[in-house]
């Protein structure tokens, strides 16, 4: 019995020695690892502080703008004319917009507004960068198809349209007729000329250029003009053509304008205009609508980009526009 007991004791001590040796070796390994190893995360002291700045990490992994701010980049100033892009909240009650022309914001812009008339024929001045997946390119134009050149290569380039047409993604009419605040006693300004015909850049086709400052005073001094919302706003009767009278009556009062289709010949129209010039009672009937309505004019071009921002804030879904030529030029 004693011999068996001694053998068992010897075996126990050998196992104990083996366990102690193993523990010693494991402890040495852990010590060396902690001294010389460079783990990303230490379970003893918590996360290791990154040597990369937070801003750099955000730039590397997030190209989207702040979720609470919608960024719209004006890639080409319309006709090269700058304007104050910070009026969305104060003028149009559209908040959360950052409108800029600084191209360094391209990669984080939710929308890029590109004015058609300022695009180079070879498209060389369009953004040369890859378009982020969340970003929408917006085609801006307010010229009629007959006064606008088609550009090969842009048919399938844009996501959205910004135009005066009612079926544009972002509709911005030249103006509108809205209810007046109470009844108004409108009196048109005194006139010293009969007819005003302003073409293209304020009449330069006739060698008589009119500056921006003189534009409204000029049309206000005439009885009749061929423009629409601008003369209506200053008390002048517009003479219109193109779309039918019914089409015009969808937007303005039927008794506020003269349509050339109402006359069988140019002479008949001319005789009627001369009659109006001599008959004040007939002429003033064209302003009776002003007792209950007034003209709301568009703010070029600030309102356009602000409405683009408003659209982008409300529409996060993907959209592409793949038929620009057919939609606008019909071919």
What can you see in these coordinates?
The chain has ten helices and 14 strands. With 331 residues, it is α/β, with parallel strands linked by helices. The chain folds into two domains: 63-173 and 300-329, Rossmann fold (3-Layer(aba) Sandwich); 184-297, no CATH class. The strands form four sheets. The chain has a six-stranded parallel β-sheet, with helices on one face. A hairpin with a 3-residue loop joins strand 1 (41-42) and strand 2. The longest helix is centred in the N-terminal third of the chain and has 35 residues, at 2-36. The model is unreliable at 1-5, 29-63 and 219-223 (pLDDT under 50).
Structural class: alpha/beta
CA(first)-CA(last) distance: 111 Å
**The CATH topology of the largest domain:** Rossmann fold
Please give the share of residues in helix.
25-40%
The first-level CATH class name of the largest domain: Alpha Beta
Q: How many separate domains?
A: 2
Question: Strand sequence of the main sheet, in spatial order?
Answer: 4-3-5-6-7-8
- Mean pLDDT comes to 78
Taking pLDDT < 50 over at least 5 consecutive residues as the criterion, the unreliable ranges are 1-5, 29-63, 219-223
Number-wise, the strands total 14
Q: Indicate the CATH architecture of the largest domain.
A: 3-Layer(aba) Sandwich
For the report, how would you describe the main beta sheet? 6 strands, parallel
Share of residues in strands: 15-25%
Order of helices and strands: HEEHEHEEEEEEEHEHEHEHHEHH
Number of helices in the DSSP assignment: 10
Shape: elongated
Radius of gyration, Cα only, in angstroms?
Answer: 36 Å
């Amino acid at each position: 019995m004693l011999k068996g007991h001694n053998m068992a004791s010897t075996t126990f001590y050998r196992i104990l020695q083996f366990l102690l040796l193993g523990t010693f070796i494991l402890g040495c390994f852990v010590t060396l690892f902690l001294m010389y190893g460079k783990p990303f995360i230490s379970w003893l002291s918590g996360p290791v502080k990154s040597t990369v700045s937070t801003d750099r990490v955000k730039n590397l992994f997030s190209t989207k703008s702040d979720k609470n701010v919608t960024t719209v980049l004006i890639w080409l100033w319309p006709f090269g004319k700058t304007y104050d892009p910070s009026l969305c909240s104060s003028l149009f009650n559209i908040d959360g917009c950052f409108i800029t022309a600084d191209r360094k914001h391209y990669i984080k812009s939710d929308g890029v507004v590109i004015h058609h008339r300022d695009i180079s024929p070879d498209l060389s001045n369009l953004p040369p960068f890859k378009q982020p997946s969340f970003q929408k390119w917006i085609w801006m134009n307010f010229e009629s198809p007959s006064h606008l050149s088609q550009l090969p290569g842009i048919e399938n380039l844009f996501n959205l349209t910004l135009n005066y047409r009612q079926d544009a993604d972002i509709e911005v009419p030249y103006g509108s007729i809205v209810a007046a605040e109470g009844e108004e006693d409108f009196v048109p300004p005194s006139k010293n000329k009969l007819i005003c015909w302003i073409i293209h850049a304020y009449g330069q086709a006739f060698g008589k250029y009119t500056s921006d400052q003189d534009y409204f005073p000029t049309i206000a001094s005439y009885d009749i003009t061929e423009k629409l919302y601008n003369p209506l706003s200053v008390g002048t009767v517009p003479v219109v053509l193109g779309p039918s009278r019914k089409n015009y009556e969808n937007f303005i009062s039927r008794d506020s304008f003269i349509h050339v289709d109402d006359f069988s010949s140019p002479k008949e129209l001319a005789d009627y205009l001369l009659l109006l010039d001599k008959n004040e009672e007939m002429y003033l009937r064209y302003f009776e609508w002003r007792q209950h309505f007034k003209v709301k004019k568009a703010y070029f071009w600030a309102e356009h980009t602000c409405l683009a921002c408003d659209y982008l804030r409300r529409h996060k879904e993907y959209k592409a526009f793949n038929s620009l030529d057919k939609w606008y030029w019909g071919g």
